[in-house]
Amino acid sequence: MLRLRRAGGPPQSVNVSYDSERKLAALHSLMRDHRVMRHPIWRRFAAGDFNLSQIRPFALQYYLHVSTTRLYAAGVLARCSDETIQFALASVLWDEYGRGDPQQTHPAQFRRFLGQLGLTQRDWKAARPIPELMLYRDVHYRLCTQEPFWVGFGAVAFAMEWPIPIFYRHLVTGFRRALDLDDTALDFFLSHVREDKAHAQGLSQALGPHLADPHVRQALQEGITRSLDARVILMDGLLRITFRNAHRRRSHQAGL
How far apart are CA 27 and CA 78, in angstroms? Predict the structure, then answer.
């Protein structure tokens, strides 16, 4: 017997069989083996191989990304007919929206991080998404509002939750090394390391008997793969704008 976290109340019990756990493990393996997990941006960040002027463009683009991610879960929730899954999705959105506190929504948390980088409201209001982020948005709006429900659920419940703590540990390591930021400044990333693990567990457990359906599993796999493929492109763009100056310096030194 596993339990879903209920914000402000007792947990909700869900039966998850050994067979369901085995099928969940296969979905986790699909994510773990995806090339996005080995994207070079994670190594570059973890090494702290950047300075403040490099990280500002990254941070502004990532803010534009963060400002829309909750809308994907909302799109999937609006199309969900299973009350247990509705509850799990609503729990994620409760956290995204700061559990009722406007100062603790995820965009608000990220704006405080931007402030630690010396950026202002004028900067993030003026920011425009790079092409790779626009593609990521287009893919996820389509996955979550136009494709079959289980495809969108695969993107939101798995690809957008399970890998995030792994990704953000790399970012936190780099921010500490390069910019000497403390935990208060890094609250957005550290809270996601905690919350997204719980989100992934709750959403996975809510699937319950649906995992027995091979068509559901196939749709989940499709959503996971398409979401992570789009994230590879997004990370390519973020790598490009963050480290392009370093690349130019190396090319100049090499006489290229």
Answer: 24
H-state helical runs in 97-148: 106-116, 121-126, 131-145
For the chain, state the CA radius of gyration.
19
Task: Please state the pTM of the whole predicted model.
Answer: 0.86
The domains of the chain are located at: 48-253
Tell me how long the chain is.
256
Beta bridge partners of 3: 13
Of all residues in the chain, the percent with pLDDT exceeding 70 is 88
For the CA atoms of 227, 233, 238, 240, the dihedral, rounded to the nearest 10 degrees, stands at 170
Distance separating alpha carbons of residues 232 and 206, to the nearest angstrom: 28
Largest CA distance in the chain: 65
SS3 label, residue 215: helix
Asked whether 145 and 75 are in contact (CB, 8 A), the reply is yes
pLDDT tens for 192-203 read 887 767 777 778
CATH topology of domain 48-253: Heme Oxygenase; Chain A (1.20.910)
> Rounded distance, CA 135 to CA 230, Å?
7
Angle in degrees, CA 78, 79, 80, rounded to 5: 100
